[in-house]
């Protein structure tokens, strides 16, 4: 029986599209829902065009009441009988109570070779530090930001001509390969790390 996967996005959803494409055909996961905190997210339109159910839960009306937003988010995922949550450019830090409800059932892709450069502006930080290698990581989400067990990484060499934008674009290509691979392995019960 296929596991029901929800993908959470805030923007265009290119990683979402890579995950959706990977779940076509013989796959242990089923794309059951794409959800966004941004009603105008391009990812919602892209998912709908593929026939995947979509929901927007705008975080702004909740103001500073993060828990109220997360309670609605959790209830929505439960209503859709979601088994696994994939964060794919979901630009909200989720609180510990929400994360605990989805412990060992929520993955995230992050644009750095964790534990380096948690949080934002990872490409700028890698260039500024003079790093020779950069990449992306898929990890299990825990309450501490970008600190969960790493299930996979993909890396590339930083070129002397790289800008943060060019580096981000090259890393994104790796993200589109790594995330579907790790999700499939995770759904098959494999939690050993894979590197590309």
UniProtKB/TrEMBL annotation:
One of its GO terms (molecular function) is phosphoribosylglycinamide formyltransferase activity. It comes from the Bacteria. SUPFAM superfamilies: Formyltransferase. InterPro entries: Formyl_transf_N (IPR002376), Formyl_transf_N_sf (IPR036477), GART (IPR004607). Pathway: Purine metabolism; IMP biosynthesis via de novo pathway; N(2)-formyl-N(1)-(5-phospho-D-ribosyl)glycinamide from N(1)-(5-phospho-D-ribosyl)glycinamide (10-formyl THF route): step 1/1. Pfam families: Formyl_trans_N. The record marks 146 as: Raises pKa of active site His. Keywords: Purine biosynthesis, Transferase. It catalyses: N(1)-(5-phospho-beta-D-ribosyl)glycinamide + (6R)-10-formyltetrahydrofolate = N(2)-formyl-N(1)-(5-phospho-beta-D-ribosyl)glycinamide + (6S)-5,6,7,8-tetrahydrofolate + H(+). The active site is at residue 110. The keyword Transferase applies. One of its GO terms (cellular component) is cytosol. Belongs to the GART family. Catalyzes the transfer of a formyl group from 10-formyltetrahydrofolate to 5-phospho-ribosyl-glycinamide (GAR), producing 5-phospho-ribosyl-N-formylglycinamide (FGAR) and tetrahydrofolate. This is Phosphoribosylglycinamide formyltransferase. It comes from Pelagovum pacificum. The gene is purN.
